[in-house]
Amino acid sequence: xxKPQDEIAIKVEHLTKSFKIPLESSNGLxxxxxxxxxxxxxxxxxxxxxxxxxxxxxxxxxxxxxxxGSGKSTLLKSIAGIYTIESGKVSVNGTLVPFIxxxxxxxxxxxxxxxxxxxxxxxxxxxxxxxAMYDEIVDFAELHDFMEERLKNYxxxxxxxxxxxxxxxxxxxxxxxxxxxxxxxxxxxxxxYDYFEELKRENRTIVLVTHSMEAVKRFCSSAxxxxxxxxxxxxxxxxxxxxxxxxxxxxxxxKTTNSDxxxxxxxxxxxxxxxxxxxxxxxQSLLLNLTYKLKKEINPMVGMSxxxxxxxxxxxxxxxxxxxxxxxxxxxxxxxxxMNMFNPGLYSVNISIFKKETRELIDYKLDVGSFVVEGxxxxxxxxxxxxxxxxxxxx
Length: 395
Description:
Blueprint: E1 8-22, H1 29-37, E2 43-57, E3 61-65, H2 72-80, E4 87-92, E5 96-99, H3 112-122, H4 127-141, H5 156-167, E6 174-178, H6 186-201, E7 205-209, H7 213-219, E8 222-227, E9 230-235, H8 237-252, E10 256-257, E11 268-275, E12 279-280, E13 285-294, E14 300-308, E15 311-317, E16 330-338, E17 345-355, E18 361-373
Parallel strand pairs: 3-7, 3-8, 5-6, 6-7, 12-18
Antiparallel strand pairs: 1-2, 1-4, 8-9, 10-11, 11-13, 13-16, 14-15, 14-17, 17-18
Helix pairs in contact: 3-4, 3-5, 4-5, 7-8
């Protein structure tokens, strides 16, 4: 059901966006003539968005999620007016501030201080306005010791932090946020989340593109799931996040071998990893199998990382198991973890092998498999569950 017009912040109607991807170079006149004679187009058509329609109410915190290549960034840039629309219509009710590709307009040869004023001017601030905000910008970015350094000496994370700190000074009715905002260490990411909470309190309209289902459930009032340029689902944050997790586990739930991303190794002749159980509840255990064969005689240590939302939440190793090694012998390691430690969500696993004595990394395998923990227990927030004892003391 369509919402009253004065309640709508963004309205997208039958939006289609395509790109022409060159198949081969045809810059020369000769090649263009050959392509014309042979009836070759010289390009293929890629359509990341296909007949998209939806509405966002004023004051909504609206999430857009989907796997890589689903069309999320194209949709955000189409709403922002960065991409021209070939068919359909996008209407925005109010002033719009896009937080997309932050740092565009920065000059690598200028200092951080000079880029603050330059970027502020691009956002429409006067020199005096930027001077009044300068200390707050630097405080938020936590770059006090680097403001007189040239930007080319900054890391990419430092540049985005500075750009984000400048951009949030711009006031608008509708804000488009890309997940590139979650940069830097945990403390700075918490600042970003605190900023999201402030926006919610101000009842401003926010569109957030993210891969973090935790962020969707925490901040969004509704969300949209894209798949191959089409809307698969619009619903509550829980509905969309759960469907995203199911879609991801269906795509990644398979055993992989080193043929996917083989690396040259001095020690390991064969490295395989698999997760035997991927449809898990909290009464089961995660069972990881690792098989390897040694080229040289070493005393190995096996490591495992459990990944959630792109971050390692647990680092485990076999240092206390006393694994032996015999030249040329195949080894198989099995590890199990009780699932009652995990809260609902999607997880993946990385494995690695180290020299036990020196901790030197000698081989590794990323994303050996994924598993999903189902459930919607609102009393269990965060990523993992830590059993605790509570005591109440009455005065």
